[in-house]
Amino acid sequence: MAAPNRSLVAKLxxxxxxxxxxxxxxxxxxxxxxxxxxxxGKTGGVYSYDAxxxxxxxxxxxxxxxITDNSAGMPWDFRAETPMxxxxxxxxxxxxxYARNPTDHVMVxxxxxxxxxxxxxxxxxxxxxxxFSRQVLQPxxxxxxxxxxxxxxxxxxxxxxxxxxxxxxxxxxxAAADSKAPKT
Amino acid sequence: xxxxxxxxxxxxxHDHGPPTYGLTRWLFTTNHKDIGxxxxxxSFVMFLVGGAMALVIRAELFQPxxxxxRPEFFNQMTAMHGLIMVFGVIMPSMVGLANWQVPMMIGxxxxxLPRLNNLSFWILPFAGSLLVSTLFMDGGGPNFGWTFYAPLxxxxxxxxxxxxxxxxxxxxxxxxxxxxxxxATILNLRAPGMTLMKMxxxxxxxxxxxxxxxxxxxxxxxxxxxxxxxxxxxxxxFNAAGGGDPVMFQHVFWFFGHxxxxxxxxxxxxxxxxxxxxxxxxxxxxxxxxxxxxxxxxFLSFLVWAHHMFTVGMPLAGQLFFMYSTMLxxxxxGVKVFNWVSTMWRGAMTFETPxxxxxxxxxxxxxxGFSGLMLAITPADYQYQDTYFVVAHFHYVLVPGALxxxxxxxxxxxxxxxxxxxxxxxxxxxxxxxxxxxxxLFFPQHFLGLAGMPxxxxxxxxxxxxxxxxxxxxxxxxxxxxxxxxxxxxxAIRSGAKATxxxxxxxxxxxxTLPSPPPxxxxxxxxxxxxxxxxx
Amino acid sequence: xxxxLVMRAASAAFFLLSSVAAWGEERSKLNLREGVTAVSHAEYxxxxxxxxxxxxxxxxxxxxxxxxxxxxRKSRGEIAAQFHDNTRLEILWTIVPTIILVAMAIPATKxxxxxxxxxNEDMLIEVRGYQWKWxxxxxxxxxxxxxxxxxxxxxxxxxxxxxAAKGEFYLLEVDKxxxxxxxxxxxxxxxxxxxxxxxSMPDFGIKRDAIPGILNxxxxxxxxxxxxxxxxxxLCGKDHGFMPIVVDVVKPDDFQSWYADEQTKxxxxxxxxxxxxxxxxxxxxxxxxxxxxxxxxxxxNGQGLxxxxxxLAGSAxxxxxxxxxxxxxxxxxxxTAMQAFGAQMNAAELAAVIHYERHSxxxxxxxITEPIDILNWSAAAH
Lengths: 184, 536, 382
What we know:
The complex is a heterotrimer. By secondary structure, chain A is α+β, with helices and mostly antiparallel strands. Chain A contains three helices and nine strands, in the order αβββββαββββα. Chain A folds into two domains: 37 residues; 141 residues, Ctag/Cox11 (Ctag/Cox11 (Pfam 04442), Sandwich). In chain A, the strands form two sheets. Chain A has a five-stranded mixed beta sheet with strand order 3-1-9-5-7. Chain A has a four-stranded antiparallel beta sheet with strand order 2-4-8-6, with no helix packed on it. Helix content of chain B is 65%, strand content 0%. The N terminus of chain B is likely disordered. In chain B, helix 4 runs antiparallel to helix 5, helix 6 runs parallel beside helix 8 and helix 11 packs parallel to helix 14. Chain B has a single domain, classed as Cytochrome c oxidase-like, subunit I domain (Cytochrome C Oxidase, Chain A), CATH 1.20.210.10. By secondary structure, chain C is of the alpha+beta class. Chain C is 43% helix and 16% strand. In chain C, the strands form three sheets. A five-stranded mixed beta sheet of chain C has the order 3-2-1-5-8. Chain C has a three-stranded mixed beta sheet with strand order 4-10-9, with helices on one face. In chain C, strands 6-7 form a two-stranded antiparallel sheet. In chain C, helix 1 packs antiparallel against helix 2, helix 2 packs antiparallel against helix 3 and helix 9 packs across helix 10. The mean pLDDT of chain C is 89. Classes of the chains: A alpha+beta, B mainly alpha, C alpha+beta. Chains in contact: A-B, A-C, B-C. At the A-B interface, helix 1, strand 9 and helix 3 of A face helix 5, helix 6 and helix 7 of B.
């Protein structure tokens, strides 16, 4: 290959490899973008709550609705104890959820949260949630799953109603595959 | 304008043809003309396959009710029709045109990487067969649209999806290698005196398209690799259960997908920019603006992808950004249309078949552009999204757009390639049959969409019957008219009248300084680039 | 050639006339509908505005082309001019379209901002897309699920397969539409059970994707009573074209009485779980459920479409032990299209359909499946 060709082809191949890597880089970029902006209704990970420094807004009241659903192929009983609470931004609230496995085999479930309206998602902070980890239920077992959260006072003022849905997915196969993978 | 044309016949006093004949010639050729021919015939075969699928679709949609195929199979037809037309017809035929024309237009002896060229082509028949073979596998072939959104294409997909992914990887690899070759050829092998701003516009559009391909195809490769991992290795890129996001699939896909549609059209822009000046006997109007317009379109194409996702539930800021960027891309496109009309203005036009296709392109692509602008208006798009309005839009820009560009190019350059004229009367008949039927086929689909008919459905409510019937009739006439095209091409090759070197009175460019047909190896010595043959 | 001109002019006229015909047409077959909400009206206005802009630009450009195609022909003895540049013109036809588009973007932005003003709703309904039907859950002020039902295509297979005449609302009718009162702001929370679907109601100007694991919200307020129809608008599998959306908007009083009635029936259905039925009652109930929910895959005659949809006729599971049959229907089968109907039907419905399957298609097991069997199975820790 002639010299000018060789260096050009090398540069272009680098571009190709770079764009392939970029596609995979889009995964964490997308995730980060969603966490930071709350776009896509994602609520981010564990938050810590400091009761002494928390700024509670007593004049403002926001309704939080909980929607619980099973995904396709998931037969669990899954519900919130109280499907709606009224909270003040800045105030830590606990809500109990229940899940029961009615089948005759061990199952692993994963709850996936999603929040609307979108501007609210970035300000919905959970300090404890069953959605942070997978839930293993024996046949017939029922568990109580507490969830603790607070709404940041920065929640846009025009938002007075927030809906949080949990979709419960059957991840028994996923969990089995993960446990088979070599431990690092 | 003085016309000193160097004669190149002396160079080829000892011109030899191909090194071998028969099967070995075609399997092992590294000659850009041979490879161009291979690409073009391959795409024509795929055109018949994809076209047959379109006729299955339109036959089922001729009347409400299910007459011929079950919904599961119908979904395979729509998905495969799209995949074959995009990856098996438009893209390879554009590469075929590039292979034939780019070296001759820049005064180069061949492509920069001739053996890579051979590989780039021969991957295609294998990949194409693999893709079509999925239809015969257990569970059927791809049935999730050419856009293959997750989780329909991952968790809920048929087993053949793995082979579909493999085929996409192969098709992408072929495109990437071809693009590297084209860029290296254009940047490194131009004859002395052929500066970038003296190149024919077809070469410019392919230079830019090749960069688009290098940026976009690897992203598609990434997307299908993620799909493969989700399907086989229990990852959760797009699986909500594992913390993944189905919407992310759409973002990654359309980040590829939108530049992809410009990849499909830019070379056709280049073809039209070659044909109009020739038959108007007038230089292309606004050459520099045309180059900048293509470059702007290519750049902007990376900023508009989510206009395919306006109903997905994006935040307001996102919707506004993509609405504005999509509207913006209409500006350079409009500039090109105005420049084409100005090229015709005060020319001395004749209307041979290539010119007819080019003029039809300008009118009908513009109509497709209008419906595209309407789709850009986000609140209005809530009514158009996933209806036949979208189907009408993209078929207008792809069929009387890209495809007419390709057909026009074949009529335009075939006499150069094989040294024989095609039958002008038959060519015109092919044109008029195609022109009328393509409008009968796709124009009613605008109204179906506005009336609310969704896309990708095998059966519809009875108020949509009339326009569906009309569209199906157009489809069958259009489909069978393309057999006439095959006949015209074969007849020309076999027994057409001998063509001159110049072929067309108003033609300018280095390729027209060569004999018709050109020698197997042309421009083994670089030609002189004169004013006459600089960009037309 | 005069023929060329005539044909060119005819085609230009055809497009022009079609567009003009659409211009200002109210409910014509050619144009978008205005709909019955403020949002749909705004969308219609934007549509007409951009259409008019396109038609005007088209007339100018195609008009110039038509003129040129006639006058600037070699056969008319024209000699080609050789100009090939005009920077001022390039600037002009870059700036003018930009101005037009900016002008267009302003009302479009305003409409979009209005559409995004959710909140302060009078009613909240969860909409869930399934393969291939919609589920509606009415949530009261305390967000308890007061009423939940599936809305499935009501058009018969005979009509689809051309064995019976097609009705007026062919493919646009359901067994139980979504019912809402006029004059109330209704907020819908939209999601999916499996793949991506899309809830579309053109008369309201609404279309929003139903995505598994993600909640989307839209709102509407309709003042005009009537039955409004739309279709699923995202490819979701084989029956994507067969899961319509029907919304029945009624006066508030009518809505209240219907709602109270339905809530009672819903509670009764939940209580049916503790009743005992005769074999005939189970067959009748089960047959109805089977034909509405199961036949689309397993076929009305139980033959299925192997290998994707197994036959129930002579199936080992259906003629085998009851527990395994319940487990399959209740829990579904991961990795296939067989859903977990335990989440979709109550114990009485499950018992009926399982009983029906065990006594149809040539199957004839000796047992009778009662709701209590379902409850026992789901409560048992085997």
